[in-house]
Amino acid sequence: MITGVSQMSQMLAEMDRMKGLGRPLSGSPVLEPGGGALAGNRATTTDFSQVFKGAVNQVNQLQQSANALEHAFEMGDSKVDLTQVMVTMQKANVAFEGMTQVRNKFINAYKEIMNMSV
Q1: Closest to 113 (Cα-Cα) out of 49, 25, 105
Q2: Average pLDDT, the chain
Q3: Degrees to nearest 5, angle at CA 59 with 44 and 109
Q4: Average pLDDT of span 70-85
Q5: Which residues contact 73 (CB under 8 A, 6 or more apart)?
């Protein structure tokens, strides 16, 4: 379960890091987390869709490994025990629920922005 939690923690840390990567107004410096200001053209950007796609792929891999272990256990593989199957399935479940919550928050934020008057 530690692996699934650490992957979710990494994903949340990446999302927290991305919060500060908004585009600056023209002529204003970009403030880095270390406190230093850099020129706008030297700032690094991260595409949210790529981060989310990576997270979806990780969740998919967890679900596939859980399904493979479940199938191996059902077929009577002596190398796979029930606790291993249950822990792997819970990792996949927690990762999927976390990804769903992130998606829901993103959709709510999008709807809120679309309802703003200009």
Answers
A1: 105
A2: 79
A3: 55
A4: 93
A5: 80, 81, 82, 85
Q: Which long-range contacts (CB under 8 A, 24 or more apart) does 80-85 make?
A: none
Q: Quick one: DSSP state of residue 35? A: S
Is residue 11 within 8 A of residue 55, CB to CB? The reply is yes
Helical packing angle, 2-19 and 82-114, nearest 10° = 20
Amino acid identity of residue 59, one-letter, is V
Each domain of the chain, given as residue ranges in start order, spans 2-114
31: pLDDT strictly greater than 50 = no
pTM above 0.85, yes or no: no
Length of the chain, in residues:
118
**What is the Cα–Cα distance from 87 to 18, expressed in whole angstroms?**
31
